[in-house]
Amino acid sequence: MRAVLRTVNRVFLGLVGLILLVLGGSVLAVGLGAPVPSWWIHDSEHDVLLSDAERTRWRDAGWWWPVVIAALAVLLLLALWWLVAVLRRRRLAEVLVDTGDGEGALVRGRALEDALTQEAVRIDGVDGAHARLKGRQTTPEAHVRLALEPHVDPGTALNDFTTGALTHARTSAGLASLPAEVRLRGVKHGAERVS
Fold first, then answer.
1. CA 14 → CA 11, 68, 87, 88, distances in Å?
2. Distances from the Cα of 76 to the Cα of 79, 83, 94, 164, angstroms
3. Is the CB of residue 120 less than 8 Å from the CB of residue 165?
4. How many CB atoms lie within 10 A of CB 62?
């Protein structure tokens, strides 16, 4: 789903950028004296974007300015929401590891996520796993999804994960604690026939 949203975001930004580039370039070209086609909205380099009649057309209507202000406010809020969504990091890129000599080392967040995922998959009864790190470099948080086979006790699988993979990740990264949110789900399976 995130890949689809990322693709839609890039295509939308590309189209908006292309439209703005073409419009801005054409206005600049007309302003510099380039020949103008007969169908173009401006006639010459001395033409204005909005004439006096166009600017004052709705001035006396009581609904005009509230509608304009509301539309601009909605556009501003949508632009701010989009900006925050694009700039917000969903994953932790690096984890700061204490090396014990007063210095620190940076470990890629994806490497720690992959280690957590691979060790979780090796737990008996875990069919699939996915780990993601969030938070800060010095205090990461693990968000893990485990797909359990039908015969597995969820409490046992969770205990095996926390005492195994999660503890290994915490000690190998030299972290005092590694809080985790673990979501368990069962793998879909066909009905078993009982005789």
1. 5, 27, 17, 20
2. 5, 10, 33, 49
3. yes
4. 7
What is the C-alpha separation between 49 and 117, in angstroms, rounded?
58
> Taking phi first (over 0 means left), then psi (-120 to 50 degrees means alpha), and beta for anything else, what does residue 33 get?
left
- Indicate whether this model's pTM tops 0.85: no
Burial state string for 109-126 with b = 16 or more CB within 10 A and e = fewer than 16: beebbebbbebbeebebb
Nearest-angstrom CA–CA distance, 26 and 179: 56
> Higher model confidence: residue 89 or residue 172?
172
Count of H-run helices and E-run strands, the chain: 6, 5
H/E segment holding residue 19: helix 2-31
Can you tell me the distance from the alpha carbon of 146 to that of 154, in angstroms, rounded to the nearest whole number?
10
The stretch 63-79 carries a mean pLDDT of 89
* Residue corresponding to tokens 């490497």: 111
CB 116 within 8 A of CB 134: no
